[in-house]
Amino acid sequence: MRSFGARLADAKSRRGPLCLGIDPHPELLQAWGLPTTVDGLASFCDICVAAYAGFAIVKPQVAFFEAYGAAGFAVLERTIVALQAAGVLVLADAKRGDIGSTMAAYAAAWAGESPLAADAVTASPYLGFGSLRPLLEVAAGHGRGVFVLAATSNPEGATVQRATADGRTIAQVIVDHAAAANAETRPQPGSVGVVVGATVLDPPDLSTLGGPVLVPGLGVQGGRVEALAGLGGAASGQLLPVVSREVLRSGPSVAELRAAGEQILDTVAYLSTE
């Protein structure tokens, strides 16, 4: 299998630089006239799959599936398969992170041969970047990607992420580790990305990352598309803006969901050519 970095670059060139989220929050299910049950969850995801089939990459938020137990994970598995059958890359937003054999088990679940394994997964490095090595190795061996949390938009995150070590913020240390991992696979596009929130005022330096930058928080969470320009010195081709609720609130109409996503994609694509 080709590397995730190469597949993502190809998908973005054909379908545009936007990641759409599937966040089946109970309030959204209710707004769509769906029950807050596994059946409602499945219907929600079926609508999203139909609406998002023409986009490059989609990010299901794992927590909202996990809330339904084993039946919720079964819906997630079916949703991953359906999106991939439509040619869409899938980023499982699981934010897993641990040490030793536990991290190895998470790696097998989200980046190995498990039914839950997607094209990429988010991960938390705050037990030390080295603790992610089992995940990075399994992901690389299966042509999958990993997006590592670096600088998040939540106010609490700054107490850890903006602390310093050897003259660098912890967020910068995370980015630099990801850059080193991507350097090992050059000249291929890097498959180790980082997550930098759209509302972060002083982002880490991303100029040497050599991989994708997932940028959540646009729209409802306060991030503006215009703020993407020059984010941390990243090239526009590295940025992968995420929009979830801003589009999902247009549902449950498949056509209206697709139109809302395409409208944001047009804006993001235009800015990336500036």
TrEMBL record:
InterPro entries: Aldolase_TIM (IPR013785), OMPdecase_AS (IPR018089), OMPdecase_type-2 (IPR011995), OMPdeCOase_dom (IPR001754), RibuloseP-bd_barrel (IPR011060)
Highest taxon in the source lineage: Bacteria
Catalytic machinery residues: K95
Domain Orotidine 5'-phosphate decarboxylase stretches: 17-260
Keyword field contains Nucleotide-binding: no
GO terms under biological process: 'de novo' pyrimidine nucleobase biosynthetic process; 'de novo' UMP biosynthetic process
Enzyme nomenclature, EC number: 4.1.1.23
CDD domains from the UniProt entry: OMP_decarboxylase_like (cd04725)
PROSITE patterns listed in its UniProt record: OMPDECASE
Alphabetic keyword roster: Decarboxylase, Lyase, Pyrimidine biosynthesis
Reactions catalysed, as given in the entry: orotidine 5'-phosphate + H(+) = UMP + CO2
The keyword Lyase is annotated on this UniProt entry: yes
Coiled-coil blocks: none
Pathways involved: Pyrimidine metabolism; UMP biosynthesis via de novo pathway; UMP from orotate: step 2/2
A molecular function (GO) term: orotidine-5'-phosphate decarboxylase activity
Family statement: Belongs to the OMP decarboxylase family. Type 2 subfamily.
Protein name: Orotidine 5'-phosphate decarboxylase
Lineage: Bacteria, Bacillati, Actinomycetota, Actinomycetes, Mycobacteriales
Gene name as annotated: pyrF
